[in-house]
Amino acid sequence: MKHIxxxxxxxxxxxxxxxxxxxxxxGTDTNxxxxxxxxxxxxxxxxxxxxxxDGMTQPLPMEQAMAAYENLVESQQQRVQSACDTxxxxxxxPFCDSLx
Length: 100
Hints:
about 5% strand, mainly alpha, 2 strands, two-stranded antiparallel sheet
């Protein structure tokens, strides 16, 4: 029994280490608000904080998205507006249209 528990703990430790090894900590991320970091060179990443899910299929409720946008500094708002201008994602269009 102790052997099984030790093996399970080792497998868990090795599996979680692989997940950490895949994270990008290159120092090029820009903070877009509380808990939201994005890569400024990628349109999808700039808009990611305005989605409720990791798959970027469900936008935040409009009120919540606008509050997050208003908390950004002007240069970050400009990046979001630029990303909105070029996005082809229909889910985020209502939010982007409200910025105009």
